[in-house]
Design a protein that fits this description.
By secondary structure, this protein is an alpha+beta fold. Helices cover 30% and strands 34% of the residues. Helix 1 packs antiparallel against helix 2 and helix 1 runs antiparallel to helix 3. It starts with 5 loop residues before the first strand and ends in a 6-residue tail after the last strand.
Length: 433
């Protein structure tokens, strides 16, 4: 509800991870000084209007003054001519004098509207003086009510609010998914199935990319130094895993690769720097070897994921009749900490990913897919959704969320693709501004 708290919409705008954050102020959290602020805005507009009127008046007065100065010489000339005519009436040709007088008066006629404008401007000046007196009184009243130091206090409150919003933006991954952008194709390479990823936990300066082509029996992992190197296919090192992988649900978390060992339900943690397996553990009861894969098959029985809160495993067992199980996993020991039965059949799911403890499931891996189902582990509840999801290359075999970059990584029919996500937040606040 818009009345509950600050609403923050966030979405990544580019592959480099830059984000946009839009905050909407709650209705009930409006500032108590809104009335005074409104009055100040009205007074400011009046001051602007008066200033504009004064500028117009100044320009017009300057123009008219120039004209009056020009007509001054004409009037002196006419006065002198009349004096001469009065002193020498006998020698004056009446007809020529009449014509000369008529010409002089014609030159002076434009002075009449100028004088009328002067009269109007005089009335305007009186009105502006009255407006200025009213404004001065209103400003003094507001200043007395708000206090001499109120603006500094308000500025400090605004700075505190900005700090709070900045803190919120540091947790941009946490929120409810409301939209997925159009796909951004990074590269076209490899076979129809595979996976690629960046580390979900390392600092943003570490932009290494890992690439694993194929969905079973593979052992070769390529590590690219940067995303640009990945795009060009240059500057990479090769890791040869001691155990082959199954599926495409691998994830890199804090310098280690988590994957499903081929022909087993064993989870493996491989450390890249030491090039060794640190730990491996069986996921009790988890299906493998295409027992409970996603709809596209490919030995995708066990899918590892990482969100803002840590490491997860998504799989299913015979005991829960093939429905998706979501388990929190200890990244050090690979021990299952807690599990949730979502009730959603895994074979009906195209792919899935987790954002802030919520599992989102696509209804297909083919063209026309959409994000159809959401399971909330914090409340152990679910809902059916209808979030458009443009499956550009019509065959998704890997889909993972990266909380550090706030994007979805996808392997789509031999194309490595990312999607920006838009999340919705209601940030609870206490007190007024």
């Amino acid at each position: 509800s818009p009345d509950e708290g600050w609403q923050v919409y966030t979405s990544a705008q580019a592959p480099d991870g830059k984000c946009l954050c839009t905050a909407v102020i709650p209705v009930q959290g409006s500032c108590s000084r809104d009335l005074r602020s409104h009055q100040l805005r009205q007074l400011t507009e009046k001051v602007q209007n008066i200033s504009q009127s004064m500028e117009v008046l100044d320009l017009r007065t300057y123009r008219d003054l120039q004209y009056v100065r020009n007509t001054e010489s004409l009037m002196k000339g006419l006065d002198s001519r009349l004096k001469v005519a009065a002193e020498s009436q006998k020698s004056l040709n009446a007809k020529s004098f009449q014509q000369e007088l008529k010409d002089k008066m014609t030159e002076l006629l434009p002075l009449l509207p100028v004088l009328d404008q002067y009269k109007a401007d005089t009335r305007l000046i009186v009105h502006l003086k009255e407006e200025v007196r009213n404004l001065s009184g209103s400003l003094l009243a507001i200043q007395e009510e708000m206090g001499a130091y109120d603006y500094e206090e308000l500025q400090q409150r605004v700075l505190m609010l900005e700090a709070r919003l900045h803190a919120c933006m540091q947790k941009l991954g946490c929120g409810k998914l409301t939209g997925v952008s159009n796909p951004i194709t990074i590269r076209a390479s490899g076979s129809r199935f595979g996976s690629w990823m960046t580390d979900t936990m390392t600092p943003s300066a570490d932009s290494r990319v890992w690439y694993m082509d194929g969905y079973y029996k593979g052992r070769r992992v390529l590590e690219f130094r940067t995303l640009n190197d990945f795009v060009t296919g240059q500057n990479f090192v090769q890791h040869l895993l001691p155990h082959p992988w199954a599926g495409t649900g691998h994830v890199v978390f804090n310098g280690s690769l988590y994957y499903n060992k081929y022909q087993s339900n064993v989870a493996v943690k491989y450390h890249f720097r030491s090039r060794s397996v640190l730990v491996q553990r069986s996921l009790a009861g988890a299906g493998y070897n295409n027992t409970f894969p996603y709809s596209w098959g490919g030995f995708s029985d066990i899918d590892f994921m990482v969100d803002e809160s840590g490491l997860w495993a998504v799989y299913t067992t015979n005991q829960n009749a093939g429905n998706i199980v979501v388990s929190r996993v200890d990244p050090q020991t690979l021990e299952v900490l807690r599990s949730w039965d979502t009730g959603y059949p895994k074979r009906s799911a195209g792919e899935s990913f987790i954002i802030c403890g919520t599992l989102y499931v696509t209804n297909s891996h083919l063209a026309g897919a959409k994000i159809y189902f959401a399971y909330y582990t914090n409340t152990s509840s679910y809902e059916y959704t209808d979030i458009p999801f443009h499956n550009q290359y019509s065959h998704i075999s890997m889909l993972d969320y990266n909380p550090r970059e706030r994007v979805l990584y996808t392997w789509n029919n031999g194309h490595q693709v990312i999607y920006n996500v838009t999340l919705f937040h209601v940030i609870k606040t206490s007190g007024e501004l």
